[in-house]
User: Fold this.
Amino acid sequence: MEFERLVFSFFNADVAARYWLDIVDGFWVTTYLGLAVIGTGLSIGLALAVARSFHFQPASFLIVIFADAFRALPPLVVIIVLFFAFPYIGLSMNAFTATWLALSMVLAAFAEEIFWAGILSIPKGQTEAARSTGMSRLQALVNVILPQAVRITIPPLTNRMIAITKGTALGSVVAVHEIIYHASSGASEAGNPTPLTLGALAYLILFVPVVILSRWIETRFAWKR
Amino acid sequence: MDQILQYFLNVAIIERVWPFLLSGLGMTLLLSLVIVPAGLAGGLAVALIYHLHLRWINRFLIAYVDFFRAFPPLVLMLFIYGGLPFLGVDLPLFATVALAFLLNTSSYYGEIFRAGIESISRGQVEAARSTGLSRGQATFWVILPQAVRNVLPDLISNTLEVIKLTTLASVVGFSELLNNARNAQALTYNATPIVVAALVYLVMLWPLVRLVSRLEHKSIVVR
Assistant:
């Protein structure tokens, strides 16, 4: 009896048949949002780390403030400030934009720190050698330092990317139509948690391969001790 | 400028909602004080069991850790919050939220402790064992202290993530800081409570961010 109730509640075929298409729609929104966040966040993070490597004090100071603030603020708070607070001063944006912008800023802050740590980890002699062959500072950075720096940044960067794409679920709070939005509205509409099970499955389908890939990357790029 | 002050940092509204925000902050801290130690303990247990190198148990532990790494904590929380009543289990809201965060957090801490333990060379165990320490004693007195020191930046950085995670509890109406700020915003038709809550998070967590940065940069220089 208990088992039947469990199946009826969480694995109800009728309910699943009614809602699985919604979940698939959500799946694509989540994927799209995640990829957009990764693209924007990594680009901004890399640009900021490169800008910081020119050691122009006022710029570096602002970059550090930015990186610190967005690493300290919980992502949900950033989303809510963008979506609920900014309209009061005439800056409205839709839920998707708010979530994308908030998560991109958070990823950019973390990525900047990771890239910067990578750049710092390369001995100064590398820059000096590159510069002495006649390369400009930017050329030395792009052709000599970054290719070496990226290697040690990959494991922490993958972890951060997984964390931030999981953060796309936060978009449901401002009604972005991603997986969890469809799953929880379906569950309350049907009075049955099966859509939540479907949503959970969708996340596993999306993220388990990524987590396994990240384990592989971690061993592949690990420092040889 | 006036508009920004009126809607983002309105002093009259701050005075009115401050006690409400403060009680939310209290709940945020209380929740963190429950999840962080419990998560650390759970994670340490996971790592220590892993360290026994029992093949099937380790496969299960890796599956457990990967499962919760792949699962967004918000989904887990909504699943537990929305699902448990259907199983006839009626937990108080605090317990529901804490349970969801704990499952998530302990797997992250477990992964960190495991990396720490694996970073200690085998010679250390062998040397400790040869002095007559038992396996348990060697782990406790020789491995763990070094392991923890090696992964301290990661442990602190994960603790920061856990505290930030507590904001998700607002989604199910748990009265922590963000939840109270949103309610206050709806009641006052003014964004000040949210902005103030964001500033509170910033002031509270900035020192932790600085600490993590310092420790991480130090470990790079040491290498």
